[in-house]
Amino acid sequence: GGWLLLQNCHLGLEFLSELMDTITTTESMSEGFRTWITTEAHPEFPISLLQSSIKFTNEPPQGVKAGLKRTYAAVTQDHLEVSNMPQWKPMLYAVAFLHTTVQERRKFGPLGWNIPYEFNQADFSASVQFVQNHLDDMDIKRGVNWSCVRYMLGEVQYGGRVTDDLDKALLNTYARVWFGEHMFSEKFCFYKDYVIPKGKTVEDYLQYIEQLPVIDTPEVFGLHPNADINYQTNLANETLSTIVSIQPKDSSTGGRETREAVVQHLADEMLEKLPPDYNPHEVKAQLQKMGAIQPITIFLRQEIDRMQHVISRVRTTLTDLKLAIDGKL
């Protein structure tokens, strides 16, 4: 009835076949027994073991709100009060925001980082420990040595993973803009509405984080708003590719309609609903009645031309798809 935990199984793929045989050939097994396997994605992982398992993935949180919630969920009240210096709590939040930012930029591909670095919780923990030690040893009269803080964050703690010169410049820019005496002023913000909250307990910070937007504009991370177009396009393509890849590959599904029959049925439905092409003579006559040189009329004509292209392309694609299913294309 115990649980077996096997970690990093991508390093021992040969053993997994033996494990699969052991599990499937064992005659008596306790109902409470479970086998947990942790692994990285690997193309040679035994597909039979993968298909018979319940899969869990540990993905990084999406967005500033989710990232900060995950970070502060691991922060205890004792950790928040480990230092009496007034700079401690704002700097802890700033490091958490930096940690979320460097992870979130990865989703934008080469627009975010030239090289996708594997920033993880160890980088955040090491950075927080450095800030704590620095404040403990700080001379109150001189204050925080910001050059040291920026260097440690931009060149050592997070910068130690960075190998590209432009990525290093970006990280140092974050450290320079976000870490300094100005971060304690009332006007400081990472981006509009993204400020450093003033709280005494972990719950205070979590309540503030809960108010942040669920979806962040790319400008929060220092990117142009159009960067989100590329990200959304790649995400949609990846999602659709995943859906297609997990579709059953056999032509028949045990008495039910084949995949080709389902697709052909949907294509027929869409072709029935598709409106006919615009009659250019009728369009021209109607536009002349409205006033051919009016700006709204010119705009309408352009939109009609674009819609005509869409209708034609959809009709051609669906017709070709039906011919391909019938083997006549």
UniProtKB/TrEMBL annotation:
Residues 88-227 form the Dynein heavy chain AAA lid domain. Residues 1-57 form the Dynein heavy chain region D6 P-loop domain. It comes from the Eukaryota. It holds the Pfam family Dynein_C. One of its GO terms (biological process) is microtubule-based movement. Coiled coil: none annotated. InterPro entries: AAA_lid_11, AAA_lid_11_sf, DHC, Dynein_C, Dynein_heavy_D6_P-loop, P-loop_NTPase. GO terms for cellular component: dynein complex. One of its GO terms (molecular function) is dynein light intermediate chain binding. Residues 234-328 form the Dynein heavy chain C-terminal domain. This is Dynein heavy chain 5, axonemal. It comes from Podiceps cristatus.
